Amino acid sequence: MTGMKDIRNVALVGHDGAGKTSLAEALLFRKKATGRLGSVASGQSNLDYDPDEVNRYTINLSTAPVEHNGKRINFIDTPGYADFIGDAVAGMYAAEIALFVVDAISGPQVLTDRLWNIAEEMEIPRAIIINQLDKERADFNATFETLREKYGDTLVPVQIPIGKEEDFHGVVNIIRMEAYMSKDGVKAERTEIPTDLATQVEAAREALCDRTVEADEELMMQFLEGERIGQEDLERLLALAIAGRKVIPVFVGSATNLVGISGLLDEIAAFFPYPSKHAPIELAGDKEGFAEFDQFDEFTGQVFKTLSDPYVGRLSFVKIFSGSITPGAEFVNSRTGKKERAPHLLRMIGKENVPIEGTVVAGDVIVIPKLNDTMTNDTLSTSGDITYADMPLPSPQYPVAIAAKTKADEDKLGSVLKSVVDEDPSLVMRRDEETRQTVINALGDTAIDVLLNKLKTRYNVEAELLPLRIPYRETVRKIAEAQGRHKKQSGGSGQFADCWLRLEPNPNGGYEFLDEIVGGRIPRQFIPAVDKGIQETMEGGVIAGYPFVDVKAAVYDGSYHSVDSNEMAFRTAARIGFKAAAEAANPVILEPMAELEITVPEEYTGAVMGDLPTLRGRVMGMDAAAPGWQTIKAIAPYAEVVNYTIHLRSLSQGTGNYTLKLEGYEQVPADLQEKIVSASKEEE
Question: Which of 127, 62, 138 is nearest to 96 (CA)?
Fold first, then answer.
């Protein structure tokens, strides 16, 4: 049984195209965990196995476990595209360190910055590998300087490349002051440190010692007084400095040519934090606050990813936070309160699964198949008394209305969508009863494209997107009176009702009904029918079919027939009177307003603030966010910013993010009201 101190969980994160999956493939191949070196470019990756991934890029989190130097290292490969950033966050949540993969040509890109800020908020240790140094125009020094300018001077190179571009064939290990050469994927052999790198290597060693001694106050004082730090002390303290986020080690390599891969594995096994260094985990439910890692005496774990396999069924990726588990174990899902059983425990290499025999301890990452009532974020525990808070996933702000293309698929669509949404918390489904639409919220349009394709290929259900209906409201702006008269004679008993109504704006908001009848002009038993007729009419609106709000309605006069008057007649008369009074009371359409908090790098604040007035928005203020970032607070009509995700990406070169919530209603401009009324009539 592998002990907790022999486990390393490493999330591979970064911008799309930096080579995260290629790096994971190289690590697997180097440790002979796969029989071939998987290739993303040729569509032969072991980890990108979903058809959408083969045709596009990584869209799902996947695991790549290897054994090295007596350590089990669980690599978690994550997507590098904004629409699937939820899986990157989930991967970091399950890991003890995030290894950022950075392209040596392009340097840190949009998603690198965003994920870096998220990792900072999560207080997770970080490391960096500058990848693809064998490519044309690859430049280690320029890339490292850019990284250090962006992310601070805790970044320290622990490897220096030997050679450049196509001549990159080795690395200098700064920690051990050794050099290794490798060509054509052959295992690296130790060699002398090239003399032309001596000055750069010495400077890197000095910087590494300078940062590492911060983990020990006594040694730091000695170092500041001129004493050199010994090799044994350096290696002892480096793991502490990385776990304490005092040092961010920077590695170098080429995943496709396998240069630097063995050295990376060595240092991960030796210096990366093990699970007990995991940040405290937030609790929910009855036990609020935070739990230390392995605090509880029982098995607890949290599902950080769910996948559906056509052959195995539902697969739940679980991070074990305390205790241990064996195949066949029973536990309780704290959300449902139901008992579940683990028929098997698995390790996954892409889509390939390897059964686990024996006990798995806290800190490990496993997969449990066939937990049909379990979803992402669920807590599993022996007692069912412990609940971990949901992962800090980004809120999906991009809504679309979805419907089945054919009548035959209508009945299937709802259940199928639920299955897909249950797997992915970056998708949220709701049924809007007011607009009579099924709405999916995603992180962007690409996520919606993948969803539609998944419905078609996996479930054989074809769906289409419809224009999203905006939940407008109607109200009145002045006082008006009108008669509602209903008379019907059809040979037998007839129907008769007559009522006079007065409408006016309600300054207190909401609906208020006033009974001002005196002298029995309308019998008491029919007054509730007048009220009900008014409310029925308000539900369907008067000018464009939207609900009426914020109005006082008074019935102050009328007449009746002793035989032909009844409740139904007065409901009908009230509907007639309300419509007539509303049309005379300057009816207007109200639109929902959205409160926005938009966070962008400082260089894009001007573009975003200048654009908001074009969306009829108002800037309400601005606050500093992370260093170099600003948060703009604004109010805008929801109809103008319903698809703000795409708009903001264009304005900020993909760097910005935002939150949106509906807050109140305001009157729409007259020209827009005409368009809304016209569109409503066309739809009818």
Answer: 127
State the Cα–Cα distance between residues 168 and 164, nearest whole angstrom. 5
Strand partners, 575: none
Contacts of 165 (CB under 8 A, 6+ apart): 133, 134, 135, 136, 137, 138
Q: Where are the beta strands (DSSP E) in 420-550?
A: 428-432, 437-442, 463-466, 473-476, 480-488, 495-505, 511-515
Strand order in the sheet with 365-369: 339-341, 330-333, 379-381, 300-309, 313-322, 365-369, 346-349, 352-355
User: Looking at residue 82, what DSSP letter applies?
Assistant: G
For tokens 């869209």, the residue is 59
- Position 281, amino acid: I
Give Cα 139 distance to the centre of its chain.
33
- Cα(97)–Cα(241) distance, integer angstroms: 13
Return d(Cα 419, Cα 429) in angstroms, integer: 11
Q: Name every residue whose Cβ is closer than 8 Å to that of residue 399 and which is 6 or more positions away in sequence.
A: 439, 440, 441, 468, 642
Nearest to 656 by CA among 634, 678, 671: 634
Q: Could you tell me how far CA 678 lies from the centroid of its own chain?
A: 37
Question: What residues does 636 pair with on adjacent strands?
Answer: 594
Give the separation between CA 26 and CA 617, rounded to whole angstroms.
Answer: 49
Q: What is the DSSP letter of 36?
A: S
Question: Which of 529, 584, 589, 590 has the alpha carbon at shortest distance from 560?
Answer: 529
Torsion of CA 151, 153, 156, 162, to 10 degrees: 80
Number of H helices, E strands in the chain: 17, 36
10, 4 in Cβ contact below 8 A? Answer: no
Residue 226 to residue 618: CA distance in whole angstroms: 58
Taken as a whole, the chain contains a residue count of: 684
Distance CA 19, CA 102 (A): 8
Residue with the two structure tokens 């910005």: 656
Q: Is the dihedral of CA 236, 239, 245, 251 positive or negative?
A: positive
3-state class of 567 per DSSP? helix
> Can you read off the two tokens belonging to residue 485?
């008269």
pTM (2 d.p.): 0.88
pLDDT tens digits, 419-451: 888 888 899 999 998 888 999 999 999 999 999
According to DSSP, residue 572 is labeled H
Pairing of strands 330-333, 379-381: antiparallel
In whole angstroms, what is the distance from residue 125 CA to residue 244 CA?
Answer: 7
Beta carbons of 249 and 263 less than 8 angstroms apart: no
Model pLDDT for residues 192-246, shown as the tens digit of each residue: 999 999 999 999 999 999 999 888 877 777 777 677 788 998 999 999 999 999 9
One-letter amino acid for residue 12 of the chain = L
CA distances from 5 to 28, 273, 357, 638 (A): 21, 9, 20, 51
Write out 418-449 in H/E/C secondary structure. Answer: HHHHHHCCCCEEEEECCCCEEEEEECCHHHHH
Give the CA dihedral 282, 284, 289, 291, nearest 10 degrees: -50
End-to-end CA gap in the chain = 68
β-partners of residue 326 are none
Report the 3 state secondary structure along 256-288: CCCECHHHHHHHHHHHCCCHHHCCCEEECCCCC
Whether the per-residue pLDDT at 187 is higher than 80: the answer is no
Check residue 54 and give its pLDDT: 45
Helix axes 407-423, 445-459, angle to 10 degrees: 120
